[in-house]
Specification:
The protein is built from eleven helices and 16 strands. By secondary structure, it is an alpha/beta fold. 44% of the residues are buried.
Length: 396
């Protein structure tokens, strides 16, 4: 009885020091080993178990709650384009802090961290440690490492497709305890689109009244539509080949949808997109497919003096032949490329997710299928088969 009273008093003291944050009891039951889904060969994950290492003074141990499956994970699953095998993948993850080193106090935005906090990671700033949340130079994060794309080492708990993740000192991390699990899983991919729209805005062409076409309605394209909707863009046309995705695009804010399978050739598709805009070309286009032919076609949708943001090629998707005269020079199109995100884009993403809730957009429905860690091979095969929209691994 006395022990219970003492324990409650200690918990209350810790809670007060953490700014009245909830304190988890997870530290009482941390196992000695953790399971990971390790990609050991193309199209082959194996569940392996490794000891949970001793934490350094700047490290954090996170109990993984869930992680989305990204197109990058699927590329690595099929062909290992990054040469990482064997590797623990998963970079769209979130979980709960269960143990911290003594030096850990606040996250990358200065928000308190504590045992029980729900967190996401951003990047490990190895190539430029001077980049911070408040750096006025909004440079891209370049070659910085990401959990879930780290080469295997003696820690092993390097990706979110696991029971536990070791977050090392020097990593960027955010306390996102105010968000539900689905929202937290979508933070990383949403940040990709926040960055892309910020890049698009630098052209001076993307405005509230712009006619915007979004080509490719996988998770990235659908998130693009949601971001555009929350920033006030009212005239959005979605282009894809899957009716389920096009229907969901309308739920997230697209005013019209065009299924390219219904049209024979780029000219017919262009006319369909124009018809969806009431007979006008698009002012701006977002190309989200990662397919070279789609990049070639997207120029045809855009008016003279319009703009384009290409964000679909995180890996080599092949060459895209265009006609420099007709596609670029004669139209004077302004093009920006977009690559991943910056730390500041994460902060903007949190506000985006709050705006989504305020507008009543059903973003949580983007995650259509969930799997256990033991089902990870099936999950990746289902992703390749375009089953559902966003697939995720959830730990019970």
């Amino acid at each position: 009885m006395q022990q219970d009273v003492i324990e409650k008093i200690v918990q209350q003291v810790i809670q007060n020091l953490a700014g009245n944050a909830p304190v988890s009891t997870a530290t009482r039951s941390i196992p000695k080993a953790a399971r990971v889904a390790m990609l050991t060969a193309p199209e082959k994950y194996e569940i392996k178990e490794f000891p949970i290492p001793e934490l350094g003074d700047d490290d954090i141990l996170v109990k993984v709650e869930g992680c989305g499956i990204c197109g990058t994970d699927v590329h690595e699953f099929v062909k290992d384009p990054f040469g990482l095998i064997p590797v623990v993948l998963g970079h769209e993850g979130t979980g709960e802090i269960v143990k911290m080193g003594k030096n850990v106090k606040v996250d990358s935005a200065g928000k308190p961290l504590y045992v029980g906090a729900k967190i996401v990671t951003c990047v490990m700033l190895e190539d430029d440690p001077d980049i911070t949340m408040f750096d006025l130079n909004k440079q891209n994060l370049g070659k910085s490492n990401v959990y879930g794309l780290l080469p295997d080492d003696d820690i092993h708990l390097n990706g979110w497709f696991a029971d536990y993740l070791v977050v090392r000192g020097g990593s960027s991390i955010f306390n996102v305890s105010e968000f539900d699990l689905s929202s937290r899983i979508l933070i990383e991919p949403a940040a990709v689109l926040i960055h892309a729209v910020e890049r698009a805005k630098t052209t001076g062409i993307l405005r509230f009244n712009s006619r915007v076409v979004v080509q490719g309605c996988g998770p990235i394209g659908l998130l693009c539509i949601a971001v555009l909707k929350t920033m006030g863009v009212q005239n959005i046309v979605a282009v894809d080949s899957e009716e389920m995705r096009l229907n969901f695009a309308k739920k997230l804010g697209a005013t019209a949808a065009v299924n390219f399978k219904n049209y024979n050739g780029a000219e017919a598709l262009t006319e369909a997109v124009k018809d969806a805009f009431g007979g006008y070309f698009a002012d701006f286009a977002f190309q989200c497919t990662g397919v070279a032919m789609a990049h070639r076609n997207v120029y045809k949708f855009i008016r003279r003096g319009g703009g384009l943001c290409e964000l679909g090629f995180f890996v080599d998707g092949g060459e895209a032949p265009i006609n420099p005269h007709f596609d670029l020079c004669a139209k004077e199109i302004t093009i920006v490329g977009s690559w991943v995100y910056t730390l500041r884009d994460y902060a903007t993403t949190f506000d985006f997710l709050k705006s989504v809730k305020d507008l009543g957009l059903p973003l949580e429905e983007l995650i259509t299928h969930t799997y256990s860690l033991d089902e990870i091979n099936k999950a990746h095969r289902d992703n390749l088969a375009m089953t559902g929209i966003k697939l995720a691994i959830i730990n019970e």
